[in-house]
Amino acid sequence: MNKTMTAASLAFAFGAAMSIAAAPAFAASHGGAMKADMEKEKCFGVAMKGKNDCKAGAGTTCAGTSKMDYQGNAWSMVPKGTCEKTMSKTSPTGNGQLMEFKEKKA
Amino acid sequence: MIGNASPAPGLPARGGVGLKPEHFRDILASAPDIGFFEIHAENYMVDGGPFHHYLGRIRENHCLSIHGVGLSIGGESPLCEAHLDRLARLLDRYQPESFSEHLAWASHGGAFLNDLLPVPYDAATLARVCAHVDRVQDRLGRRMLLENPATYLEFAASTMAETEFIAEVVKRTGCGLLLDVNNVYVACVNHHRDPYAYIRALPPAAIGQIHLAGFARDTDAAGDPLLIDSHGAPVAQAVWDLYAYAMERLGPTPTLIERDNDIPAFPVLLAEAQRAEAIMNEVDAVRPQEALA
Amino acid sequence: MSPHEAFADSLLAVQPACPPGLITWNGSDPARRFAVYRNNVMVSLIDALADTCPVTQTLVGEEFFRAVAAEYARANPPRSPVMAHYGADFAGFIEEFAPAAGLPYLADVARLEMLRAEAYHAADAEPVSPEAIALLAADPGRLPAARFTLHPSLRIMESRHAVVSLWAAHQGDDVYSALAAVDTALPESALLLRAGLDVEIYRITAATATFIRHLQAGRGLGTAVDLALAADAAFDMTEALGLLIRAGAIGGITHPEGEQT
């Protein structure tokens, strides 16, 4: 693309972008005219916590004593969360499928 | 050494509550009648965003105490100057009525362990802590309050009692004290000492603020009680009793309710702050005049 | 070894350990009491990561997440007393973590959540006025050389996985239904931006991500468009510019001298 074309198309695009930005439909983000770029995934009111504290940890005395040792040979855990429901419909390798990790077991 | 008392005007002799992000909106909406709020300094060492937005607004209508948890005053290495700079900027921005930190360490060899770790009470540690408190007060240009720790262990190397150590730091540096009554109770149970004698052993004139909180119960390897400073429960009756005793000796003193685990709705904490106020005023009304001297 | 070094090492050790020189009033084993400090340190570090990465935790479950976080915390304790940004390389750790190898997208979800925390605490800035935008539009000759100062909270992330969709599926009530609609292997890019007090996350194309990255690097509008088009001929500059304007991502417009067109 040569410079003149870029400048001309840029001017056109910028003007169009302004009207898109001003259109009320944008806020809904589900309007049919909106493309993938416009999809806003808002995090509704989830406030972060402060991470500096002067309290003792809850649960008193367990977390410091590891039952699992990834470097050693005691890690036998598998993920057990919503990942069990995720899948890849397109990956030839089953990318995204849950695989049990069996390298080492206690 | 900084000779003057806490910068005027200081915190009011009333109840306060630790400010939690969970309560930002409630506090702005309800405009509670409360003595003061306290923040953990490090949580606000961020460039912008909601924390500063809410703190700025709350600060407009309330007294503020800034309470550091990451300076590592008891650490073996010199204080982190970059962290002191961050503190100075924060204090400059919010102009708090009080600044306090802990008699503890948290940083070593470049790692920050995010807990308040204990120090031995010996001459070498005393010299180091005093040098660090001097540096804080010089850098910040104000008097700081030093908080007594909740501890679970003692050191064979200690040559003096914790109260003796703290009193000496006050004497050498001119700093004030933040008397954490829950910490006194927790540490005294954990080390089989008399919490009332502990409070009597501290210089009363230095005490500029009180902390109250709840603890959790555990046991040590011998089956004896081991209390944990969890900040996850209402203030225990034994701690309220000890607090009333402290108020008899000290007179009305700014008193903070700390809650960092299992945080209830704001009015629950406000009610605890009001209970502290009621106790300090009740005790004050019947306090013998000579104690005021 | 200094006393604090021995103490610090024992706090982070995998096997329960107790540094020397500790005593108890009743002569009981100090290791039991030292475990309180071990617990405090590990719980606080793990909690910090969990607060930043709630979706990562939900994906693998609390038990697995806390175990990974513990491994990370032991190997990478914080280097700063400011905990807000602890875990900057947590996603990289997950990527290399063999027990999580079956979930190739997991590290990128953690990366997105870390960026969200960064955006949350980033510096404040006002977007440019609509008048300034209109002024620029009225002078199209200056458009190609114009440079945008983007909002300090703006972050861009490209992923080989459907990272935004995975994250978004966890924001509603029916996580499982939302997840069923996600193809994890579809590449997605994300734009994160704090507007007011909320961090908003937009799913964007890779070309738009390229475009915004070049703007962020200080390149002129024309150059950024050219580079995005070179990356993907289907790049839609109208849509990308519309997004930046509407989202309030543009904090300033400058026209460097000598680059008038």
CATH topology of chain B: TIM Barrel
Low-confidence stretches of chain A: 25-37, 64-69, 94-106
Q: Structural class of the secondary structure composition of chain B? A: alpha/beta
Summed over residues and divided by their number, the pLDDT of chain B gives a mean of: 95
- Label the overall shape of chain A: elongated
Going by helix content, strand content and strand pairing, the class of chain A is mainly alpha
What share of the residues of chain A does DSSP label as strand, in percent? under 5%
Describe this structure in words.
Chain A has 106 residues and is mainly α. Helices cover 23% and strands 3% of the residues of chain A. The relative contact order of chain A is 0.07. Chain C is mainly alpha-helical. Chain C has two domains: 1-103, no CATH class; 123-261, Enolase-like, domain 1, CATH 3.30.390. In chain C, α2 crosses α4 (62-75), α5 (90-96) packs antiparallel against α6 and α10 (206-216) runs antiparallel to α11. In chain C, 50% of the residues lie in helices and 12% in strands. In chain C, the strands form two sheets. A three-stranded antiparallel β-sheet of chain C has the order 3-4-5. In chain C, strands 2-6 form a two-stranded antiparallel sheet. The longest helix of chain C is centred in the N-terminal third of the chain and has 23 residues, at 30-52. At the A-C interface, α1 and β1 of A face α2, α3, α4, α6 and α7 of C.
Descriptive keywords:
heterotrimer, A: mainly alpha, B: 293 residues, alpha/beta, TIM Barrel, eight-stranded parallel barrel, two-stranded antiparallel sheet, 39% helix, globular
In a few lines, what is going on in this structure?
The complex is a heterotrimer of chains A (106), B (293) and C (261). Chain A is mainly alpha-helical and 106 residues long.
